[in-house]
């Protein structure tokens, strides 16, 4: 932990401004701004690659984590949001609560 109470970044973590989330996403092949589903798919793909390549997680872990994020994004769509940016703390808490009740 740093002196500010925040956790120091992992030495293998990409620095700010690098990695798959750095900068704008590549333009879609149609030339139009990608829709929420395309953005979500790109983010999920980048997340899966990060878990697998940069964090060394097993294929089973990657599949489970990506599946959980897909479920969370589906909950956002049911709530009326279609973009990954629509996920907020209230939605995350509601989704986690539902997941816990399902156990």
TrEMBL record:
Can you give the residue ranges of the Core-binding (CB) domain?
Answer: 38-103
InterPro entries attached to this UniProt entry: CB, Integrase_recombinase_N, Integrase_SAM-like_N
**Keyword DNA-binding found:** yes
From its record, what is one biological process in GO terms? Answer: DNA integration
Q: Where along the sequence do coiled-coil regions lie?
A: none
Entry GO MF terms: DNA binding
Q: Does the keyword DNA repair apply?
A: no
- Chain positions covered by the region annotation Disordered: 1-39
What ranges does the record list as Low complexity composition bias? 13-34
Which keywords, in A-to-Z order, does the entry hold? DNA-binding
Write down what this protein is called: Site-specific integrase
Give the taxonomic lineage as stored in the record: Bacteria, Bacillati, Actinomycetota, Actinomycetes, Kineosporiales
């Amino acid at each position: 932990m740093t002196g500010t109470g925040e956790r120091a970044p992992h030495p293998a973590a990409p620095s700010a401004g690098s990695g798959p989330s750095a900068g704008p996403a590549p333009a879609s092949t149609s030339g139009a701004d990608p829709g929420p589903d395309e953005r979500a798919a790109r983010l999920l793909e980048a997340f899966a690659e990060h878990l697998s390549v940069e964090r060394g997680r097993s294929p089973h872990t990657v599949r489970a984590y990506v599946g959980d994020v897909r479920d969370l994004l589906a909950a956002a769509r049911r709530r009326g949001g279609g973009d990954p940016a629509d996920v907020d703390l209230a939605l995350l808490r509601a989704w986690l609560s539902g997941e816990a009740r399902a156990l």
